[in-house]
Design goal:
heterodimer, A: 308 residues, mainly alpha, MetI-like fold, 2 domains, 16 helices, 74% helix, B: 316 residues
């Protein structure tokens, strides 16, 4: 035992891991694997970006890889000139904003009371608020319900049914329970502060990281989802940008397959360059803000993994 | 009052409802908002599920439609379209699990062994990216990359002289099946590492040092220290994923699908959408949906039970 300990100290003092580990072949293989996988995540987008600002003939001649050829911004001009695209973008942003705001309010309203051990009836209420996560009524009953509520085919249906999220509520509840010391609230309570005051003046200011994280969960979730758009709305005015992109590419594909065996040419309804520009139009906002969001997401996912 | 004491193994100082309300009325007021939301938008739809046991006609409404017991379930199970959708869903979800589940574990092990911190960080940021993109974007980029004539992958393969004609990655069903599965692996591999990496940081460094002194090489350390160290995370996540075998994602199926591949693309979400929203066969769609939800719920409860039996944290 004693000998081992001594050895241990020697290795640590002589530079720890790095002294023991030389750069081996296995290091090279691992880095190569990671580089290839990273390339698979980045190159497709570079390719689409290059296509989006290339000339149509260069794309048709299959000359565009990762660098644009015959640079032209015509496709982007067409995308930005298309009122329905820009409208969808603004509409999506508006819906996402309202959704996130209401979502955070309802989430806090559920998570804060339920994080209190003393709350009477806590178990029953938690149960009631968690069941919908595991068992939903299904598409058609929901469809008919929204019809009865007169929110079918209005923008409300894109907001109200999903603002309460059991998953986000759990994350927030865990955070409150684990990081806000009870003693802090107790002393405020003894000083005569009400529950609202404690929440507003003490708990929320201490919870900024989780508020940021959950706002992003809500915002990105809403921004990316469009199946409710497919199920519950018909009106063109209610198409969010993701749904719009899906329809554009789907119709182009159908036109292409219909025009027999993919001759790759004139018969396309939406030219490849225009498709690429539309994809970029929808993707760029996410890619720009993504590096800043990422760390909050990682944090939130970790808190979510801890059972409450 | 008497039944309100949960647990009962300790002496709990019981507060009467009156005092609880007096002290915490503000908290109960807050809870009204989420409770109203779940009751109005989730629970209120539950009674609608009874149409799975009726021959529901929208004009007649619930009151005028006939009850048919389990007739609708008999009908959908003898409907070849439904059995095809069910079979496709289960097979593809199991394949997703088989192919997609090990990848984040392998990737987490590799990321953990990377020696340059900066390189590792950049790699992680890039690998997480696909998780943040909608299926509309993933699908449209996939088409741009894989089209037989103008897709980048086919152009590159043709220029390299490996193939003569474009491979129909997205338009022939067997190729499509592979593409469909691999895109899922691609999208989930990076993000899936997070929980494993967190578990790995919890492993004591002394174990590695001791192993190194005893002459264990890198692979041995991975196999005997890192993998056992994340075993419980692996088991928990595996069980959680087993609960999703009945799931079906309309966005993924439609974003990657097209009319050439309906044989495989036709899964439960598409069946329910077609029957319910497109054809107005409300009862059939609801019966299929209810079957899917109930089996899904049973699988989740079963997984939870198994996890707890194995001594892991359950989900519930």
């Amino acid at each position: 035992m004693a000998k081992k300990n001594k050895n241990n100290e020697v290795t640590v003092s002589s530079g720890g891991e790095h002294a023991v580990n030389k750069f081996r072949f296995s290091d090279f293989v691992m880095m190569a694997v990671i580089v290839i996988l990273c390339a698979s995540c980045v190159l497709p987008f570079i390719h689409v970006a290059a296509k989006s600002i290339s000339g149509n003939t260069a794309v048709m001649a299959k000359a565009v890889y990762f660098l644009p050829k015959d640079i032209t911004f015509d496709a982007f001009k067409r995308v930005f000139g298309d009122d329905s695209m820009t409208y969808s973008m603004v509409f999506s942003a508006g819906i996402t904003l309202i959704f996130t705001l209401l979502g955070m309010i309802v989430c806090t309203c559920a998570a804060y009371p339920l994080s209190k051990k003393r709350l009477k009836g806590k178990q029953v209420i938690t149960f009631l608020l968690m069941v919908p996560m595991y068992f939903g009524a299904g598409i058609i009953p929901s469809y008919l319900l929204y019809q009865d509520l007169h929110i079918l085919d209005t923008w409300w249906v894109l907001v109200l049914p999903l603002i309460y999220s059991p998953y986000n509520m759990l994350i927030m509840k865990n955070f409150f329970q684990n990081t806000i010391p009870d003693s802090l609230e107790e002393s405020a309570f003894l000083d005569g502060a009400s529950n609202f005051q404690i929440l507003w003046k003490i708990v929320l200011p201490l919870s900024k990281p989780i508020l940021a994280t959950l706002s992003l969960f809500y915002a990105v979730g809403r921004w990316n989802a469009y199946s409710d758009n497919m199920y519950y709305t018909r009106d063109n005015k209610l198409k969010m940008i993701q749904y719009k992109l899906y329809q554009l590419v789907a119709s182009a594909n159908e036109a292409q397959t219909a025009s027999l065996a993919d001759t790759g040419g004139a018969s396309q309804s939406v030219p490849e360059v225009l498709q690429a520009a539309s994809i970029m139009f929808v993707t760029v906002p996410i890619i720009i803000i993504y590096p800043f969001l990422q760390k909050y997401f990682v944090k939130g996912t970790m808190i979510g993994a801890v059972k409450g | 009052m008497g039944k309100a004491n949960s647990g009962g193994n300790k002496v709990i100082t019981k507060t009467s409802w009156k005092n609880a309300f007096k002290r915490d009325w503000q908290l109960y007021v807050m809870l009204l908002f989420p409770l109203i939301m779940v009751f109005v938008f989730s629970y209120a739809a539950y009674p609608g599920m009874r149409m799975a046991f009726m021959d529901y006609k929208p004009i007649k409404g619930y009151a005028g439609s006939d009850w048919v017991g389990f007739g609708m379930f008999k009908k959908i199970f003898s409907d070849p379209e439904f059995t095809k959708a069910l079979r496709n869903s289960i097979i593809f979800n199991l394949l997703d699990l088989l192919i997609g589940f090990p990848m984040p574990i392998i990737l987490a092990l590799i990321l953990n062994e990377l020696r340059y911190a900066r390189f590792k960080k950049v790699a992680q940021t890039i690998l997480y990216l696909p998780h943040f993109l909608s299926w509309a974007i993933v699908g449209s980029v996939a088409y741009t990359m894989f089209r037989p004539s103008t897709g980048l992958v086919n152009i590159a393969l043709m220029n390299a002289g490996l193939i003569e004609k474009g491979i129909p990655f997205m338009t022939e069903k067997w190729h499509w099946a592979v593409t469909y599965l691999l895109i899922n692996v691609w999208q989930t591999m990076g993000w899936g590492t997070i929980l494993y990496l967190a578990a790995i940081t919890g492993i004591s460094g002394e174990l590695y040092e001791a192993a190194m002194i005893d002459g264990a090489n890198r692979w041995k350390r991975m196999w005997y220290i890192t993998l056992p160290g994340i075993k419980s995370t692996v088991v928990t996540l595996l069980i959680m994923n087993l609960g999703k075998v009945m799931g079906s994602n309309l966005e993924r199926l439609t974003a990657l699908g097209n009319t050439q591949v309906t044989d495989f693309q036709f899964q439960l979400a598409i069946y329910i959408y077609n029957r319910g929203i497109s054809n107005g066969k409300f009862s059939q769609a609801t019966a299929a949906n209810l079957f899917q939800s109930l089996v899904g719920l049973a699988l989740v409860l079963l997984s939870d039970r198994i996890a707890k039996k194995l001594g892991e944290d359950g989900l519930l």
